[in-house]
Amino acid sequence: MMGMPIEKGTELDVAVSTRVRLARNFADIPFSAKMTSKHQNALIDRMQSIISDYTVYGKLMYADMTTMHPVDRVSLMERHLISPDLAESKGNSGAFINEKENVSIMVNEEDHIRIQAIFPGIMLEKAYKVCDDIDTIIAEKADYAFDIKYGYLTSCPTNIGSGMRASVMLHLPALVMTGFLKSILESCPKLGVAVRGIYGENSDAVGDMFQVSNQITLGRKDEETIAAIDGICKQIIDREKALRLQLYRQNIYAFEDRIYRSYGILKNARVLSTQECFKLLSDVRLGVSMGIISDVSVLTLNELLVLSQPATLQKIAGKQLEPEERDVKRAEMIRNRLQKTE
Amino acid sequence: MLCQNCHQKAANVHFTQIINNSKIDIYLCEECANKISHVEFVSPFGFNDLISGLFGYQVKQEAPETLKCKNCGMEYEEFLKTSRVGCAQCYHAFEEKLDPIIKRLHGNAEHRGKVPVRVSSKISTTNEIAKLKQLLNECIKKEEYEEAAKIRDRIKALEVGE
Known about the structure:
heterodimer; A: alpha+beta; two-stranded antiparallel ribbon; 46% helix; 15% strand; globular; B: mainly alpha; 3 domains; rod-shaped
């Protein structure tokens, strides 16, 4: 299955997806900076033997980065199953991914392993439980690098302690339009919360999508961090919803016009760049969540957001495409999908 | 503002030169600045650069000494450049310098929450032994030797079990 995992989450009109990841290292193997290829192979073997019988969340199949085509790697990244770093990794690395594509364990990334779960909408507790379960199974079979004072030890000291990053991707067009997002961006770091673009660190915010995640990993229980991110996201969501209504009431015709124009372009365009596509999808998503457009669901739009990205698009086409060809293919794919839903 | 040398690219390097008490300001792009000066100009915008900057901040003022992890061979200077430690032992090898940095990153905090099951069983055994040893001392002081012998055997059993 490609695209977002189809499972009901909450607050789908603003929250796109939830991701939790745990960074873990083993005590007896050097960390990534000092690993040899022998260590890397041994680590993959260890994970194979620990995880091979574990099927609680479906069988976890190994996606080997060394043999995978670059387009497929980037496509996994676009689907948030692996990180940008793993997609570009030159060493022996990979990820164990389940069939539903909502659980993945990256191996030989910045840390030995990164266990992650991804769900639609806000589902922080569920995503955490999945990671926690897998983590417990691994901890029973091998010794993690752990310190009483510093907690789980990681390659970079920014992740020590819980090794956890809990993040929610939010669609915030009204906060962007009104400029209120700026004050959120300014106040979040004070609360130990980071707001970033859709691929995490160093990435741009496209299509009014923002990732809200915890910055601090030491000294807080996982449950406390999860509750804090959940609380902050829900506040941002409430604000976004109130502003959407306010903008709508201010000028109903202009608001609806913008949404219907974007929908019209998406359904009819013959050439669509990634940037334009994301902007239009953002408008339509806003329209759907406010009940202005009713013949397409937010889940379909979430899926289109993933499918219209360059590498995933080439994966669907089954061949490598030049940028101009991609823009044509993207327009065609979106036209077909939107016609199907009518 | 455009580069005063090539007049094409945006100027992002500012040179100030003071000759005979008169100040000269020159604005150049990165490329021209590199050509003209012997100093390498690179925009320090990456996340890792920022983090390394944070780590390196306090060290610059101290006398340089080679701090090295005996387990993996990682040098502290190398860690400063990459912001990645080489193994679990690095945290102890670099503790003196790393601890203040960790406090800056995470606040004055210690780990709370999940503990790996194998570690937690070791901790509980260690705690249990410590408690029993205390009890043993008390028994000896009170000259309750029969009880002391029982406790001693229990400690031995726990230690072998480890």
